[in-house]
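debug: dumping io for the single-chain case to check the tokenizer round-trip. Nothing else runs in this session.
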Amino acid sequence: IEEHQCVRERVGLFDVSHMGEFIVAGRDTWSWLNRMVTNNVGKLSDGGVMYTVLCREDGTVVDDLLVSRISDERALVVVNAANIAKDFSHFQDRLSGNVELHDESDDTALIAVQGPRARDLLARCPTFAPARGQLGELRYYNQFHFDAGGPVTVSRTGYTGELGFEVFTKPARAVALWDELMEHGAELGVQAVGLAARDTLRFEASFCLYGHELDDDTTPLEAGLRWVVKLKKGDFVGRDALLAQKEHGVPRRLIGLELDGRNIARQGYTILADGEAAGTVTSGTFSPTLQRSLCMAFVDSKRADADNLAVEVRNKRVAARQVELPFYPSRAGE
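debug: decoded output
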């Protein structure tokens, strides 16, 4: 909880070097990538970053990921750690045209600097001295590259719902950079933050997590990610299936629920509507920031708005009411 509150109130550091990084290169990079993912990454300008989903032909989710435009013929794709091999294989099996795909995951370290004082912290560090002007001007979902005795990429992105940056560097440079951030952030109250707090932070902001709100049996439309599915951009993998689902209506919806008391709804718990099973919890906890017991859940579309909702917690029915998502509106773009 202390780490969680540190990010909400000050600034925290996350070692997220387990994430995967692919480089896509070649003359057909952007036309090919735009056919692979649901969002319109072809619209990106140099330095732009876009959240999107990678789907199979049947519309189910392979992974959610970030695509960054380095140049006309080069892209960075950041994928979830557990899906590196699966994503690489999915892309490789569908390569076409003048495109090369490289897995740079083992040659990339990633440090996330998140919280209201994140920009202040980077500005204090000697490593970022050549880029202080760019730091102040960097817009949300954009990035820039510079040399600091080796290549460094600073991306204004994150997974916490707070102002934040993700810094890509070479593994040999990572420990020194981490130590520098901790040293110069001491006066700001910086803390190292683990993956447990990262999960409660993303949960409050209602960001999807692969293995919870997204998996091999879920479509982005069911997970509330219609905003990243651009059906009018042209053909892409999964488009026909997603168009059909949109026209017929999704069979289930991702909703937010608040439970009575301090009862915690865990992943896999049953959602009841008028006493009958109607869905399943995907993520849930007692929110450290909001001081409420909350969960996200997939619920049958026809029963999601039932008056009498409950969660079965350890064989006990706990009353719940639907609440708007996100639980905690993101401040990352401020």
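debug: round-trip ok. Residues 251-324 form a domain with the Elongation Factor Tu (Ef-tu); domain 3 fold (CATH 2.40.30.110).
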